[in-house]
Design brief:
Length: about 260
């Protein structure tokens, strides 16, 4: 009865609320990896810096990241699910996933850029949400919250598209739908998809980080960039978060179609 009630009421809002909660949990778990990744890509070396403030410093900004991730991801994935179902009736798995993920990501991109800048500033400067928002606004006005927009757009769209295509193709190829019966397969598919996305976007992420945190110029970064800087930390985080996220998302779809 519970599943049938969910199915009758299932739609954009229900999907959005559930995936928003899932994303908030993922954002909280991923914050320590983001802290280490940021330190490595800004300083170009891995030292004890990210850990000098203890466990609390690793989760600095986690509240902002967790709360802000809810509405952004809720709209993004809720809209993706809606579009993908419509498009899959006329297009292939890869095509529908690519189109749906690109459009859905474009809708929330300005909010993601602002969220990313604030979160990185909090982690890098060890400050509070209020302090960073005030400083960004006083320094550059509203434009300051869109710094690196073009680079972020490329990274986000490329990363999201590669994740969804890998995930959709993987589940369709293996013919699995129930994560309660195939948890390992779903975890591996999600982890693999996220690691592919990480490998593709790492050079762009380095450029974005340098532009947003150090205010560096694009061509200056290109001259000295190491495309694999921080890749190990990002891959570890991608493996864990991608696997968990795939399990959660698959369970949502399984319940809604049950």
């Amino acid at each position: 009865d519970r599943y049938n009630d969910f199915k009758r009421q299932h739609g954009f809002l229900n999907t959005a609320m559930i995936v928003g909660s899932l994303s908030s949990a993922e954002a909280f778990v991923s914050q320590p990896f983001e802290k280490v990744r940021l330190h490595y890509q800004v300083t170009h070396k891995l030292t004890s810096g990210p850990f000098s403030g203890g466990l609390r410093s690793l989760f600095r900004g986690a509240l902002f990241s967790t709360v802000s991730s809810f509405p952004i991801t809720a709209v993004n994935l809720g809209y993706y699910n809606y579009l993908n179902k419509k498009l899959s009736q006329n297009y292939s798995v890869s095509a529908s996933a690519t189109i749906a993920s690109t459009i859905a990501k474009g809708v929330v991109l300005p909010f993601m850029v602002a969220q990313d800048i604030i979160n990185q500033k909090i982690l890098h400067n060890a400050t509070s949400f209020r302090q960073e928002v005030r400083h960004i606004y006083q320094t550059n006005g509203l434009r300051g919250f869109m710094k690196g927009f073009n680079v972020t757009a490329v990274s986000q769209i490329l990363g999201t598209t590669s994740w969804w295509v890998s995930y959709e193709v993987g589940t369709k190829t293996l013919g699995i739908k129930d994560p309660t019966k195939n948890p390992i397969q779903f975890f591996v598919i999600g982890a693999t998809a996220n690691m592919i996305s990480t490998l593709l976007t790492n050079p762009i992420e380095i450029i974005r980080t340098q532009m947003q945190v150090n205010n560096s110029k694009f061509w200056d970064i290109i001259k000295t960039i190491n495309p694999f800087n921080g890749i190990t930390v990002r891959l570890i985080g991608a493996l864990l978060s991608g696997g968990i996220y795939a399990l959660g998302w698959s369970e949502i779809l399984h319940i809604s179609d049950d």
